[in-house]
């Protein structure tokens, strides 16, 4: 009987789609497992005993030492060995949002604990990076020197420069995004670990206060990040953080901040580490749909603006998002899939808000029901997992045809577990230039993806297409849990 049950379970998670006459199996459960495994490959610090990605080793064990602070831990953001605070915080916020909305789905698929562990790896680091109310360490590692080298993180010889924001050098965007991550995580941990949840919330409140009372862009205070993660503004992060703090606390101070907010910038064309307005608009629309706040003023605008973005994704709006002939929502030539996965999460969450309130989405050209929104999000997942003209999975390690030459230092060099001989700064380029598959499979990584013509070149040197980043996979976790 056990084998029969196993076979039935396998059939449940296999969905069949037809691509150019070819039947492809989409195993959402496997993709969900893979997506969470990826975060273990991106870990910095001392790896735990239960580490599942065994080709990685300990790294960055002296991070913060030169500044007299413990900054060991956290995540490398992409294929390099730098810890950038802004994309790391956005990654954790998306992971936490996935648990907040779809914790029960994750639990059913035995992935809730892995999702919480992935969040905590980030939030533990943020707590250490925030030793005082108006002080936040913004990152570790020098981007220029790091990018001049090609080394495993375990072999790093590049400077581990520490960057910070404080009252004299503000960074409202970074402080508020970190606040959002901690506030969202406090909800995710509320039932399972109330003490930890309270600690996260205390830091979130302090960081929001820091962000609002000492305003400025973090990339104006820290010039070295401008070439990598320069911020376009901080109003979006302030609204995003306030939305999460209100949801976590229900306190009037955050409700009033949202209701009186003057920095909203209208309908968005994307949702990303640099622009969180859409996320805030979707999050706040929930209260409008539930009738808890009036569908007018700021609150009405948030809901209307979220709807406009969704209608544009559905190709039923007044300013539709470009869609490739193969069906992919395409936003940018540089790491496009990060925007696609984030948009898919927003679409999925809003669909469920509509469903819970018995409402539909009113687009200029049609009335859209929640199931149609879910179908759009599913189509994007299916495309990423292989239902596309190239018949290629853009999730590494999923299926039989996926990118083999991901732009990633650790994955492209033989594991330190197999060959502990240190790889020097320039020595690693011998591995970089090899026209062979990476020796380590970066399971669960979502690469930048194809161009607007659905073309993809598996080339380690093409960082626009072939580099993966934590935010790419973070947006997909909740969607995979929901449609599984």
Could you describe the 3D structure shown?
With 484 residues, the chain is mostly helical. The protein is built from 19 helices and seven strands. The strands form three sheets. It has a three-stranded antiparallel β-sheet. Strands 1-2 form a two-stranded antiparallel sheet. β6 and β7 (366-368) form a beta hairpin. The protein starts with a helix and ends with a helix. Mean pLDDT is 94; it is low at 1-23.
Which shape, going by the Cα principal axes?
A: globular
What's the N-to-C terminus distance? 24 Å
The percent of residues in helical segments reads: 40-55%
What series of H and E elements makes up the topology? HEEHEHHEHEHHHHHHHHHEEHHHHH
Protein structure class: mainly alpha
User: What composes the largest sheet?
Assistant: 3 strands, antiparallel
The neighbouring-strand order within the major sheet is 3-4-5
Structural Rg:
21 Å
Contiguous runs where pLDDT drops below 50 for at least 5 residues: 1-23
Helix count from the secondary structure assignment: 19
Mean pLDDT: 94
Q: How much of the sequence is in beta strands?
A: 5-15%
DSSP strand tally: 7
């Amino acid at each position: 009987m056990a084998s029969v049950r196993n076979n039935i379970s396998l059939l449940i998670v296999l969905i069949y789609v037809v691509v150019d006459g070819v039947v492809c199996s989409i195993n959402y459960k496997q993709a969900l497992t893979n997506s969470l495994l990826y975060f273990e490959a991106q870990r910095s610090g001392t790896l735990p005993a239960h580490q599942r990605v065994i080709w990685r080793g300990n790294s960055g064990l002296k991070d913060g030492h030169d500044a007299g602070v413990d900054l060991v831990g956290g995540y490398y953001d992409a294929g390099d060995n730098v810890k950038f605070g802004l994309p790391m915080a956005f990654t954790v916020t998306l992971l936490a949002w996935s648990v907040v909305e779809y914790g029960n789905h994750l639990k059913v698929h035995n992935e809730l604990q892995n999702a919480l562990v992935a969040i905590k790896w980030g939030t533990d680091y943020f707590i250490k990076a925030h030793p005082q109310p108006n002080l936040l360490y913004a990152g570790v590692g020098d981007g220029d020197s790091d990018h001049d080298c090609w080394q495993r993180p375990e072999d790093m010889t590049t400077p581990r420069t520490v960057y910070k924001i404080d009252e004299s050098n503000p960074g409202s965007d970074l402080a508020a995004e970190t606040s959002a991550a901690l506030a969202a995580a406090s909800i995710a941990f509320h039932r399972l670990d109330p003490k930890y949840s309270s600690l996260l919330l205390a830091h979130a409140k302090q960081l929001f206060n820091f962000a609002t009372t000492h305003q400025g862009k973090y990339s104006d205070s820290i010039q070295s990040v401008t070439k990598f993660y320069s911020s376009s503004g901080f109003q979006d992060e302030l609204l995003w953080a306030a939305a999460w703090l209100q949801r976590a606390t229900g306190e009037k101070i955050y409700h009033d901040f949202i209701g009186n907010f003057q920095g909203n910038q209208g309908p968005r064309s994307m949702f990303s580490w640099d622009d969180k307005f859409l996320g805030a608009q979707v999050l706040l629309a929930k209260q409008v749909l539930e009738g808890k706040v009036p569908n007018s003023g700021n609150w009405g605008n948030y809901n209307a603006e979220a709807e406009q973005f969704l209608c544009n994704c559905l190709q039923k709006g007044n300013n539709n998002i470009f869609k490739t002939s193969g069906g992919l929502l395409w936003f940018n030539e540089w790491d496009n899939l990060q925007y696609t996965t984030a948009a898919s999460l927003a679409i999925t969450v809003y669909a469920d808000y509509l469903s819970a309130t018995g409402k539909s989405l009113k687009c200029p050209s049609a009335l859209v029901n929640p199931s149609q929104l879910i179908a759009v999000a599913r189509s994007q997942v299916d495309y990423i997992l292989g239902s596309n003209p190239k018949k290629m999975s853009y999730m590494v390690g999923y299926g039989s045809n996926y990118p083999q030459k991901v732009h990633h230092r650790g994955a492209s060099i033989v594991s330190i577990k197999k060959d502990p001989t240190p790889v020097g700064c320039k020595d690693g380029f011998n591995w970089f230039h090899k026209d062979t598959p990476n020796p380590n499979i970066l399971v669960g990584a979502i690469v930048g993806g194809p161009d607007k013509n659905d073309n993809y070149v598996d080339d380690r040197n093409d960082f626009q297409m072939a580099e993966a980043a934590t935010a790419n996979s973070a947006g997909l976790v909740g969607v995979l849990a929901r449609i599984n």
